[in-house]
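A quick word before the example. In earlier lectures we treated sequence and structure as two separate objects. From today on, think of them as two lines of the same record. Here is SUF system NifU family Fe-S cluster assembly protein written that way.
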Amino acid sequence: MSFNNNLDTLYRQVIMDHYKNPRNKGSLEDSLTVDMNNPTCGDRIHLTLKIEDGKVADAKFDGEGCSISMASASMMTQAIKGHDVETALKLSEIFSDMMQGKEYDDTIDLGDIEALQGVSKFPARIKCATLSWKAMEKGVHSQGQ
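And the structure line, produced from the sequence above:
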């Protein structure tokens, strides 16, 4: 087995782990709420964000969709929690570049998010992976942050 096959297998395992055991699943009271869907495939996300003093104090999601969209939402909430809004938006920009197969800032540790890198080879799935990130951006921008 080549290195790439091993890496693909590892990435698939990380994605399936987030899909089957989502982090930050649920809803927050008294929080910023964003609902988005992908009409192409039926994925939908209900994202709640608690932003305090310019930081993402907490983030939770609920929804339904394919393994890519739900795993991405799990990874996204995990990645942005505790960071300031600017960092959350920067992570979203990096993720978007990665999904489009562009060069991206690899000085920031993406953690599990890197497992979604292979999605860029499947244009029909990119919207699945970016749905929760777009919801986060919409929510943050609606706050005027």
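Notice the following. The chain is about 45% helix and 20% strand. We will return to this example when we discuss secondary structure assignment.
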